Amino acid sequence: MSVTINVNGREITAEKGEVLLTSLRRSGIHVPTLCNIDGLAPSGSCRICVVEVEGQRALVPSCAFPIFDGMKVQTNSQRVLQARKAIIELLLADHPDDCFYCERNGNCQLQSLAEQYCVRSRRYAGMKNSYLPDSSGESIIRDANKCIKCGKCVRVCEEIQGVACIDFINRGSHVTVGTAFDQGLNISSCVNCGQCVVACPTGALIGKSHLNRVVNAINNPEMHVVIQHAPAVSISVGEEFGLPIGLDVIGLMHAALRRIGFNSVFDTSFSADLTIMEEGTELVNRIQNGGVLPMFTSCSPGWIKFVETFFPGNIPNLSTCKSPQQMLGAVIKTFYAERKGIDPKKLFSVSVMPCTAKKFEASRPELGRDGYKDIDAVLTTRELAQLIRMFGVDLTSLEPETADTPFGERSTAGKIFGTSGGVMEAAIRSAHYLLTGTELADLTVEAVRGMEGVKEAKLNINGMTVGVAVVNGLGNARKLLESINAGERNDLHFIEVMTCPGGCVNGGGQPYNTSRDRVIARATALYSLDATESLRVSHQNQEVHQLYQEYLGEPNGEKSHHLLHTHYHQREALV
Ligand code: SF4
Ligand code: SF4
Ligand code: SF4
Predict the structure, then answer these.
(1) Which of 203, 279, 318, 544 could form a disulfide with 102 if both were Cys (CB 3.0 to 4.6 A apart)?
(2) Strand intervals (E) in 8-49
């Protein structure tokens, strides 16, 4: 029910029952928050969103205070501003103050609030902790000294991702966030998704940078350095340079990467098409030959580690296909190296991913051969922007360039891999063709699009009903797996799972500040490409066909199985 409330002397419309912060935001009234997470119940722990409500003796947290008819609110009274400033001063009392060396310098909510509320001197000298940063994991670094105990990481990990590998530990002024038994992230059940990193308002959680490795390789005249970029990168990296959200800068990015010194530039969407050829063939084989169903997609490395850790009994359900990153890495180190006459040991293969878990994936010992890895370094979208700035390249002044051959073509089916439902839609298009020999009458599969956590569809292909589900966010995946394993669901043949809510467009390596609107805009940009380009199916990618003819043989054949497929293993769940 709509009611009228008075905020700072002006009337606004609010909904009875909702919390004050929601009404304020809808009316364009900004109130700072540090612990609030869209879509989750308020915790009210940071108190920075306090406001004054007439009739209440104490200031109230707007994130948790319910609307009532006729309420009068002051969001910027002297009392409110002083309280917020005191909270920031207290948070900074035991802070290490090393902004200059901090990854979040210039993009830190605590730093911004200190600036906005004119904190110019230290009023409280707190006891500083001296925790050793945990850089044991492949993807994430934790620095508990910079933790302000907002709890966002803990809640994201447990309530959204269903992993719960971190929680508050210790007591009193020693409280901080840690893993079970305060062990390193590397032996915890962390799946490296990086959702805690994008949620963290400070530099207490950051991605592990591979920038130095890449810069060293570029500056090594002995090395031939190639780079590939995932579908969700080109429509989000522009945000780092103030360009419109969702603007596809793929041509400018190719030009920038060549200026930086990469010898070849490839689009991972090419190997997304290759993945569809392999995964689609695997699915059809499983359906026709009584293989393990439902088959799960395997391109999201956080999801793979999640199954290995929490649902090892479902490992046979995982497609054996490597992810597109690893498939392209494998053919770069073999086919491309052979064609160019380059010793694979002198070939440094870089990927740019919207994802922190891809760093962990690239380090998996089974993903390489003859003592060298498929992928040598993984940059996140954020690190790519840093690299472009480091090399002094003005992205917007460049002329667009295309990707290199032999992996230069991609369909839009490969491009929409970057959003939840994209892999499934690409697979449906090609599975239909593989099973019937004809293209789908309408290539757009609306039922699997959108940001909902679980989407399902029933498809009629050649008289057979195929049940598919699309899941994003591991908490949603956990629920679906539990119902499948309990025998409650036996109508599904193929399930796409993306670790991050909304898919790679919202990956843990994407530009910070991933509001829902921003994530939707990125996904919309991918679908716009699909709506306007003519090559919309993976099985019509001529360079993929050429790769099979000249090198791989056939999908799921001996050579492609050797290069493009992998295996998984059970891991101990330490929570
Ligand atoms: S977390 Fe923020 S305030 Fe703390 S050192 Fe880093 S940039 Fe500075
Ligand atoms: S990376 Fe993901 S799984 Fe690991 S602690 Fe962060 S949210 Fe949890
Ligand atoms: S690590 Fe970051 S997100 Fe987690 S409680 Fe500390 S400041 Fe908050």
Answers:
(1) 203
(2) 10-15
Angle at 269 between CA 459 and CA 501, to 5 degrees: 65
Question: Quick count: other Cβ atoms within 10 Å of Cβ 452?
Answer: 15
pLDDT digits (tens, 9 = 90+) for 122-173: 999 888 888 999 999 999 999 999 999 999 999 999 999 999 999 999 988 8
Structure tokens at 566: 């992998």
Query: Which residue has the least CA distance to atom 4 on ligand 2?
Result: 190
Say whether domain 2-76 belongs to CATH 3.40.190.10.
no
How far does the centroid of ligand 1 lie from the alpha carbon of residue 555, in Å? 50
State which amino acid sits at residue 421. Answer: G
Task: Give CA 211 to chain center in angstroms.
Answer: 19
Nearest C-alpha neighbor of 380 from the set 401, 362, 398: 362
Catalytic hit among 300, 504, 538, 560: 504
193 is catalytic: no
| pLDDT tier at 435, thresholds 50, 70, 90 | confident
Length of the chain: 575
Catalytic residue among 299, 321, 355, 500: 299
pLDDT for 233-259, tens place per residue? 999 999 999 999 999 999 999 999 999
Does the predicted model carry a pTM greater than 0.90?
Answer: yes
Tell me the CB-side half-sphere exposure of residue 52, using CA atoms within 13 A: 15
Closest ligand relative to 103 C-alpha: 1
CA of 90 to the centre of ligand 1 (A): 14
Crossing angle for the helix pair 381-390 and 211-218, to the nearest 10 degrees: 40
The residue whose CB lies within 8 Å of the most ligand 2 atoms, and thus the one to mutate among 161, 198, 303, is: 161
- Closest listed residue to residue 268, CA positions, set 427, 408, 431: 408
Q: Is 272 in the pocket of ligand 2 (CB under 6 A)?
A: no
Q: Report residues whose beta carbon is within 6 angstroms of any ligand 3 atom.
A: 147-153, 177, 199-202, 204-205
**Fold classified for 212-564:** Rossmann fold (3.40.50)
Closest ligand, as measured to the CA of 196: 2
Whether a cis peptide bond, with omega within 30° of 0, leads into 406 is yes
Active site includes 366? yes
pLDDT of the residue at 166: 97
Please tell me the CATH code under which domain 90-207 is placed: 3.30.70.20
